[in-house]
User: Which sequence fits this backbone?
């Protein structure tokens, strides 16, 4: 169903670009059904070459779309909603905000109360159809919920949550990408120090991280259960793990997650 819908991404920055790439990777998705807007469209020229509509007119984009995604910064959501309100059709459209910290109640202060609005928090892995997207709503019917799930399932998989958890979802799912990448970078640096060149270290670490994630997913394991399979008595793994813990590895991760969450809450 999503392949036949017109989708507008208003304010197409890094996250919007990732979603656009994911959609264009779908078989039989017509690039003409995708509209991207940005004040400066130069960075979106590659999409235009693929047949995507790339424009600066938010009002036109909103009018033409069945599904409207707001990819703008949180402080711009109210302004954009006010701008596109004349184009919105409460009976035939769904609007989805990707902005951190902007509640559905705040959105409804700018749009028709009969409009179906969602909040969604995907991550940049949508670019390769591997995002996790948390969504919430208050007024959607089953058909609309399935439509939004299908949209985000096309770029990964989707979890419906209570709106009170959306900020926490942002930290784990969106900020979490950066946490994992920083961990990967550190492992690569360690690999270089013990003798590998950067390219080889990257290949080993990237596949190791991918394998660890797939192991958790496919075997439905708790991390400690898998760790136990690797740590032998007096072995090199447990020595390394203990040293990391002595240096505050786990507590630093937890503190980082909490710090990001507290920043959103403020």
Assistant:
């Amino acid at each position: 169903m999503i392949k036949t819908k017109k989708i507008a991404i208003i304010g197409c920055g890094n996250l919007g670009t990732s979603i656009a790439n994911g959609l264009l990777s779908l078989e039989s998705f017509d690039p003409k059904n995708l509209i991207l807007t940005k004040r400066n469209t130069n960075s979106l020229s590659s999409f235009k070459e693929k047949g995507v509509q790339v424009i600066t007119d938010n009002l036109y984009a909103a009018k033409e779309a069945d599904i409207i995604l707001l990819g703008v910064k949180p402080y711009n959501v109210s302004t954009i909603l006010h701008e596109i309100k004349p184009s919105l059709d409460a009976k035939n459209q769904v609007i989805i905000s990707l902005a951190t910290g902007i509640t559905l109640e705040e959105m409804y202060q700018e749009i028709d109360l009969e409009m179906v609005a969602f909040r969604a928090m995907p991550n940049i892995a949508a670019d390769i159809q591997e995002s996790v997207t948390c969504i919430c709503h208050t007024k959607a019917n089953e058909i609309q919920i399935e439509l939004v799930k299908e949209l985000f399932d096309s770029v990964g998989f989707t979890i419906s949550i209570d709106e009170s958890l959306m900020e926490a979802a942002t930290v784990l799912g969106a900020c979490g990408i950066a946490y994992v990448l920083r961990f990967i970078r550190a492992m690569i640096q360690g690999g270089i120090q013990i003798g590998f060149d950067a390219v080889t270290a990257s290949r080993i670490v990237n596949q190791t991280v991918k394998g660890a994630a797939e192991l958790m997913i496919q075997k439905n394991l708790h991390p400690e259960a898998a760790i136990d399979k690797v740590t032998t008595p007096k072995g090199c793994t447990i020595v390394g793990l203990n040293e990391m813990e002595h240096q505050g590895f786990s507590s630093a991760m937890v503190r980082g997650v909490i710090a990001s969450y507290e920043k959103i809450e403020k």
